[in-house]
Amino acid sequence: MLTAVQIAQLGCGLFFITGLLTGIWKYRSMMNSPDAQAPVYVDICHRTALMYAFACLVLAEFAKLSAWPEMVNAWAVAVPILFFA
User: Fold this and answer.
1) At CB < 8 A and 24+ separation, what contacts does 37-45 make?
2) Predicted pLDDT of residue 2
3) Is the pLDDT of residue 1 over 70?
């Protein structure tokens, strides 16, 4: 079974990869646009994926410092990550 820290790190990695891929999408959209702007939905997707990656790192640090049982920490980390996704 995965620990809370591992769940948070996995979420961070997935969100960060999503942020990088949507960054490529955003850059290509900007290059092909006459006004050099990406569509709003691409910009929001890129920005939020990177912010959620950072939030997952914060959750991982909180899980490391927590005195609660591991199952409680795992749920406390998994629920916000699933909400982010």
Assistant:
1) 45/18
2) 79
3) no
